[in-house]
Amino acid sequence: MSKLDQKPLRVLTVPAGAGTSVWVYDDVDTLKATGEDTAGRMSLTETIVPPRGGPPPHVHANESESLYILEGDLEILGDDGRMVGVGPGGFVHFPQGVLHRFHNPTDEPSKILIIFTPAGFEEFFLEIGQPVVAGRPGPAVDAEYIARADEIGSRYGQTIRTESGGRS
């Protein structure tokens, strides 16, 4: 039994605007609930996806990822390899081990909730993420950043894939 499984569960309340905010890729990710908060059961991140933003195609070996779209529109990589549009109020579930991605194709930011089950992948966000500082831009998302994300992500069971399905 892990330490997290032994931790007593408690009610968690997180006010609006609270949580640790980091730049990951070109998104702003605010951790609302972590594995430490939920005894490892799940994590919840509020994410702002900028215009034309979103992570590259990737696979999670250890957890499933679900999205709930609060504002804006996203394109989701579907099972058939085509991008499918999802708007506010839409929900998407990416099972563990399935290639997926989300992308904001518009000129306006999108706001989503990301749920990982079980928890753990939020540690990737904290390791690669740079703290959000008001008035300062996020990191450049270039080939070097993607290579670093792939290397760090591999420690958390994530593999970044190219559009053709090969490892980046």
UniProtKB/TrEMBL annotation:
<dbReference type="InterPro" id="IPR011051">
    <property type="entry name" value="RmlC_Cupin_sf"/>
</dbReference>
<protein>
    <submittedName>
        <fullName>Cupin domain-containing protein</fullName>
    </submittedName>
</protein>
<dbReference type="InterPro" id="IPR014710">
    <property type="entry name" value="RmlC-like_jellyroll"/>
</dbReference>
<feature type="domain" description="Cupin type-2">
    <location>
        <begin position="48"/>
        <end position="116"/>
    </location>
</feature>
<dbReference type="Pfam" id="PF07883">
    <property type="entry name" value="Cupin_2"/>
</dbReference>
<dbReference type="InterPro" id="IPR013096">
    <property type="entry name" value="Cupin_2"/>
</dbReference>
<dbReference type="InterPro" id="IPR053146">
    <property type="entry name" value="QDO-like"/>
</dbReference>
